[in-house]
Fold each of these.
Amino acid sequence: MTTTALDDGWVPADEPPDEPPDWYDAGWYEPAPPPVDDPVVTGTAPSRGTALQVLGQVWGYPQFRGDQQRVIDTVVAGGDAVVLMPTGGGKSLCYQVPALVRPGTGVVVSPLIALMADQVAALSALGVRAGFLNSTQGPGERASTERALLAGELDLLYLAPERLTVTSTLDLLDQASIAVFAIDEAHCVSQWGHDFRPDYLRLSVLHERWPDVPRLALTATATAATRAEIVDKLHLADATVFVADFDRPNICYRIVPKDDPRGALLHLIRTEHDAQAGIVYCLTRACVEDTAAWLVAKGVQALPYHAGMDARTRAANQAQFLREDARVMVATIAFGMGIDKPDVRFVAHLDLPKSVEGYYQETGRAGRDGLPSTAWLAYGLADVVQQRRLIESGDGDEVFKRQAGRHLDAMLALCETVDCRRVQLLRYFGQESGPCGNCDTCLVPPQGWDGTVAAQKLLSTVVRLDRRGQRYGVGHLLDIVRGKRPTRVAQLGHDQLSTFGLGADLSDREWRAVVRQMLAAGLLCVETSYSTVRLTDASGQVLRGERQVWLRREPPKAPRASRAAARTEPGPAHRAAAVDLGDAAGLFEKLRTWRAGVAREQGVPAYVVLHDATLREIAASRPNDLAALSQVSGVGATKLDRYGPGVLAVVAQG
Ligand code: ADP
Ligand code: ZN
């Protein structure tokens, strides 16, 4: 494969980027669980009170958010529900609370075997009796979970879909009392999405076998098409559908031109997210490994993650990211679904995501705790070419390719917009809003300029070459338009073209932005096999002067990353964190250190002990007894018992 067409640092993909998501090799076709031959006592997990009481006692939260209350009321009353809520919106409580309020065990279907242990640990820390059944367990552990289920000693049970649909599991559940079925990540039922799991299609069995048990399907994927597919495939026609506000106001969206993307990423980390947790998404495995190694060499605690790594290293890296502070995970999209780490402060994309939906899911992993966070994307000409080529040369049929093309067009429109990014994002999900004040286009409005003449210069060069039966890549075209005379241009006689040198008024960088925007707008097209450029129907309109080309001016180049910069110019997220806490910042850090010790001792992620948001509130309010501590949001009865004395000791010293 050659890269002659482009010379701005594009490296061709080393493998098809459509890597199977990581649960493909997580061993989900498991043998059926062994028969339970111990005598069983059938019981029922008792109710712990009303929904609001449970929320206060168990989670220590004073009130429900958004649609939570209405969803919970529906399910507690025995109705089915479909819940579409953005990442971080609070979906888990929608099924966890009903599982505690209704008699019996809540059964949660989740594709995320690797995360079940942490989910159960987080619930145990709240005093909730939770368990899971999956292939990572030995027969003894599995049998004891099954016994607990049958004895009515479990509030929540997590299962992978492939396990749920085997006969022995269905028989097991027949003997238990079930409060609710929750189908998490319900978009996995969609054959269009990259998270498709065939076993999800078999979940309609739940309705047939247990018609009286309420079902709840949840997802952060928001388009109407996915929603319709969930309702259809899971037989949820009678369910109440809840569509939450999809805005994530604490996330600042920024899309920058791809000049020295790694350097710009490092600058972002050093100036705004120093010693904070983040995720960096790359398209290919090679890019993941190179970028992680490069960041480590620059002193950032980065870890790689992709589906090609051996399972053990991958699991170890994921655990480290979840358990320790300030780790940066460099990953393909194989990483991230179900990651509920609340304090991920930034999500960076070094390559263009394939769709707005994917972009929103990935960026949504930042700032679940509601504190200021950054979504940063570096996007360049080569991305457009590469993505168009991947679509054209992929195996999908025409319908699939057209759909993929539309997804890409929407993503490009988001990148090139001169309007508020959030307005565009939310509109994509069918939600109207006004300028947000927390995205790059709102903060530094881009200038537009009339690029019609520039576009005509480029297009007429393409026309002239076309007449000679020749097609070239962007690099060569720009040499001609800018009047450069490298050997190839002279040899081919292209310095004799009438358009030679007509565009010397713009720099190479400016020209690349012009071409990128023309490609995004369909005014030019890239030939898939050779990366050469050709005209489209719309090109003619521009050439004939029937269509104006309004372009976005490139912002100035980002400064190079430097250590000094980190001290002199704190960015928005950094500033917000520092301002909020004021005098309490020292105590907050002491509490974090205490928490790290407790988490290590108990072998759980730090946020399972107490969230950052809770520690901040403690640092600010300095409770001096257990009663005062219990008023802090996020301190429920069990955590008060377990951690109260430790926290009070730190506060007293601080
Ligand atoms: P989702 O699964 O939708 O991505 P989670 O269920 O993980 O979101 O919730 C996101 C965060 O918000 C969690 O840290 C959770 O503890 C917190 N949260 C959810 N509901 C509430 C609430 N009613 N009050 C306070 N915090 C909440
Ligand atoms: Zn905005």
Amino acid sequence: MRAGYDVRVADAVAVTRDVSPALAACELTHLARAPIDLDRARAQHGAYEVAIADAGYRVERLPADPGMPDCVFVEDIAIVVPEIAIVTRPGAASRRGETPAVAAAMSRYRTVRNIEAPGTLDGGDVLIAGHRVFVGISSRTTPPGAAQLRRLLEPYGYDVTEVSVRGCLHLKSAATAVAEDLLLINPEWVDATVLDRLDHVTVDPREPSAANALRLRDRVIFPSAFPRTAERLEARGLRLVTVDASELAKAEGAVTCCCVLVDVSPQA
Ligand code: CIR
């Protein structure tokens, strides 16, 4: 077991959103459209929520909007730090209507700030590792969007660094934090010269999509589709809980993108 785990998990909330009945019309950037079994997607999403609840988080599920195919991917809509929540202006115009419901949920826990036009930014492009924040410049997040994020976070002591992303949707398709001081990276999809200054594990090359892991306080939620990379993480002492996320993966979703974690403990 790695040092530094805090297993006191009370007072943590995971905001999720139901799978939209319109999911088949989701945005796609790198994948060809494939049939999605909505019932199976909902069952897998429910099991994912149970895995998060088992870790001691209170899951707060927002209702789906039938007019918003991608609304289950709440991560793209809000970024939360102990001091504020930032509601994004998503890069895909079809997703901008997702923001009011998520903003309302965030306003119960944090002062809400917004990314404003013309900047765009998806939460999937924002990787937070302590007070280091990496923001991916991608097909969804523009330099003006990243600059707004910097202006909002720097007053609280965060160091915001832009990272270019290639070959994948978001920065967090290519790199996620699996512990306070440990990243999981696919170096093919991200400028690793920025990220590899931090201690990191690389994905197994046969599992390029394996860099997205959801770090909870005492465990990591990880897709069952990537057993070789899972072995690498377990070898670093991480406790993994695997979930089948195959249906939402057809919509280019992964495990970080279906929740926004909010620490509501008094010290937050
Ligand atoms: C989209 O293209 O916006 C959705 N179909 C998938 C978003 C996945 N979000 C994420 O990885 N943060």
Amino acid sequence: MSTTKITMDSILSLSKRRGFVFQSSEIYGGLNGCWDYGPLGVELLRNIKEAWWKSMTYRDDIEGIDASILMHPRTWEASGHLSQFSDPMIDNKTSKSRYRADTLIEEYIAKLRNKNKTIKADEVEKRLASVSSNEDYYSIIIDEGITDPVSGTAEWTEVRNFNLMFKTYLGPTEDSNAVVYLRPETAQGIFVNFKNVLDTSRQKIPFGIAQIGKSFRNEINTKNFLFRTREFEQMEMQYFVKPGTHKEYYEEWVQIRRDWYKRLGMKDESLRFKNHEKLAHYADAAVDIEFLFPFGWGEIEGIHSRTDFDLMKHQEFSGKKLEFVDTVTKDRFVPYVVETAAGASRNFMAFLCNAYDEETVTDDKGGEEVRTVLRFSPELAPVTAAVFPLINNENLLEISTKLYKSLQQSMKVQFDKSGAIGRRYRRQDEIGTPFCITVDFETIDDQCVTIRERDSMMQERVSLDQVRSYIQSKM
Ligand code: GAP
């Protein structure tokens, strides 16, 4: 029986206890907005990225690339990031704390709702929705007497824009000519390579370019574990299409991405697709794929119909033609783009929350115990199988070690010979291992082992030489 009420605390505590995620530079007190993936976390993250990569590039019409994090600074002028990629920030003069002005107001609205002051909350929300300048944010904060959660005062500076790109210098001189930026999205590496891929891969429109890589945003406020961090990974795919056909491809990609999440075990009730009401100036359709985290709904991926905005801008700023020429019809045009932009780290947290369960089961002595189980799809599970010799007996150790070494050639396996079998099952349940294989005394005679499946806890006798194919068939 499932008894789960997932909280962020249970996810955080499991992540630390079992080595999924650690605070970055923990021995120095940690670094805000940065996290390290531990031995199990890195396996889960790699499996998510691998599942995405295969679904994107193991098809005829999508090529992969891996562009560098540092790009020519003109890239960010062309894309608009230099002038527009900023958040409105406000400082409290007493506490010296810095906040995103819009978040401060949103939190105030949430407080009003908690106190059932619905009319007032609606009124402030309406003002927030129609903000068009930093002065508008400032007026709301002052009019409403919003106070700093740290100092409790309403001593605010004016609202200013804060560019989220991290700056650094290329080469030994630290002057303005040497300034470069850590990319805030992987997409621009794809746009600037559009022509290279088109010319070298023999693709024709429609085709896509996929990339997985690190992005950096100097977020004013990081929050909710891996949800908003300063360094994170993105999995982006830009699909280049003939103008006029973009609506149909946009719909198709929304469906493809929905199917991907479902195939990997995302529960229907934990996923929603939220259309953007206010579109960015370059988009003619956009939807956020949101997951229901313990703290509420949060975006894990955006799908955007970006028109020809980016290629046109790069064409203008670089002076290079970024067109597709149809060799048959002689048609030439700058393609439109449908983008699927997922966060690998947000996906990681979503798949972890989606898998987390606690259920009451019968223990070895016939009593009740609560088992924590991560119900990952076998494709994503950090460890695919665990091999247990029933007891520390020379013959059993020999057979189980041989099986373990043989499975290790094609999957991630753990070997565990300590403690009662029940305890060993619980250890594997807690990290989501789908198959536990026990070598017992009967194995010596019948050359069969017991495979226990994580979710149903059903056991099956399987011949030693069939173990690998048994597991592969279940994956
Ligand atoms: N090229 C489009 C683009 O970057 P975005 O909505 O800004 O779009 C795409 O980002 C995805 O990247 C988001 O859905 C989210 O999963 C992830 N992401 C964005 N900012 C993030 C942050 N600060 N921390 C973790 N993930 C983030």
